[in-house]
Amino acid sequence: MTRSRINEVMAAADEMIRHYGFVLPPFAYWTPDQFAAQKAQAGRIIGSRMGWDITDYGQGRFDQMGLFLFTLRNGDLADLQRGGGMCYAEKLLISRQDQLSPMHTHVIKAEDIINRGGATLVVELYGSDDQGRFARDRGGVVRCDGLERAYAPGDKLKLAPGESVTLMPGDWHAFWGEGGDVLIGEVSTVNDDLTDNVFVEPIGRFAEIDEDVAPTHLLVSDYDRWLV
């Protein structure tokens, strides 16, 4: 993705988030220079990879396959492993109309995916085999707003604003907006986007960036390069 396109996506996402009554935290609006000046105090933000995240999964087709994310808070894997402390994470996502977030699962993370506003969120589901691998012939059981719901392989849940689904490790899922763009909330256990996303297809998690203009704000994938 070009940096200019990423800047445009950020601006549009911020407008949509505000439209639905959410406001991002102050660090979201730091310039790269402001971030660098505060990096000593922002160690938790940097280490937990909180912040802007815009991806086309390395495929160069953001409108067809991509996702906007902002990690608002993120806990510590060591806390999760010992069973106490900050074991949770929270994100805001935007799935555009017919924009695919491709089929994947997580090894560690359990998550609630919540339609916070906009159009219908479609979540396509498959189960796992006995080794946790994608199984085109297996379904499973999820919870939708606390109620158990069995799914057959390939079932598509349609979540209206206010509705949610709880996904556990081994629930393979893809999602997109139907009829318009969707603002999504994600509440989960500790999030590790570097290692805990397992895709069916051999694709990347982050975008490769063409630096055609300066960044408005840094992405989480910029931290290692821009904040050294």
From TrEMBL:
Its EC number is 5.3.1.15. Its cofactor is Mn(2+). Pfam families: Lyx_isomer. It is an enzyme of class 5 (isomerase). Keywords: Carbohydrate metabolism, Isomerase, Manganese, Metal-binding. One of its GO terms (molecular function) is D-lyxose ketol-isomerase activity. It catalyses: D-lyxose = D-xylulose. Coiled coil: none annotated. It comes from the Bacteria. InterPro entries: D-lyxose_isomer, EcSI_cupin, RmlC-like_jellyroll. Belongs to the D-lyxose ketol-isomerase family. This is D-lyxose ketol-isomerase. It comes from Pseudotabrizicola alkalilacus.
